[in-house]
Write a structure and sequence with these properties.
alpha/beta; Aminopeptidase; two-stranded antiparallel ribbon; 9 strands; Pyrrolidone-carboxylate peptidase; Peptidase_C15-like
């Protein structure tokens, strides 16, 4: 049976949980559209996160890799369009590293675009009543580091797709960030199930607006 690898992160920056892992771990060993889902946790650590990811790819040989991360302050599920070749950490990672203006891959391209049908995925989520949008930036922290490293590994081949999704805080996190938006576990879980299903079934992305004015 073909496999999809989905990853979430450990908590960081003083949070007690990371919503990406709290949701992603519930998908482990499930089956979607005849495809077995394997969930793995990544450390919120520059370099080490990619080592763990690459080991999991080598072990499971998935047809698709979907990395998921926390984006506290965002209001919806955001499908990342692009990863850029720079680490510029506003805060240290979980091992105290704080790279500034460092390339992720020496001599690598400035950016990689997602290999997933992100606009079709946004459409599917919205049709299900789940707030979703295309994001034009994955930041410059460990999430972007993982997305860029993943797409760099997958570049030049046509058999494995990869991309990144950011999700909001969980309600129990937002309780400690007054005014911050949140999304319930079950809603995010349903969103990720739909995202995987759509990415597996759609071969050519929708040609619809998904840009931003600023």
């Amino acid at each position: 049976m073909q496999k999809v690898l989905i990853t979430g992160f450990e908590p960081f920056d003083g949070e007690r949980v990371n919503p990406s892992w709290e949701v992603v771990k519930q998908l482990n060993d499930r089956e979607i559209a005849g495809t077995h889902i394997v969930a793995r946790q990544l450390p919120c650590v520059f370099g080490k996160a990619l080592t763990v990811l690459n080991t999991a790819i080598d072990e499971w040989q998935p047809v698709m890799v979907l990395a998921v991360g926390q984006a506290g302050g965002r209001t919806d599920i955001t499908l990342e369009r692009v990863a850029i070749n720079v680490d510029d950490a506003r805060i240290p990672d979980n091992q105290g590293q704080q790279p500034i203006d460092q390339t992720i891959v020496e001599q690598g391209p400035a950016a990689y675009f997602s290999m997933l049908p992100i606009k079709a995925m946004v459409h599917a989520l919205r049709e299900a009543g789940i707030p979703a949008s295309v994001s034009q930036t994955a930041g410059t922290y460990v999430c972007n580091h993982v997305m860029y490293g993943l797409l760099h590994r997958l570049s030049g081949q046509q058999t494995v797709k990869g991309g990144f999704i950011h999700i909001p805080y969980l309600p129990e996190q937002a309780a400690f960030h007054p005014g911050a938006p949140s999304m319930a576990v079950q809603t995010v879980l349903h969103a990720l199930e739909l995202a995987i299903l759509t990415a597996l079934q759609v071969k050519h992305d929708l040609k619809v607006a998904g840009g931003a004015t600023h």
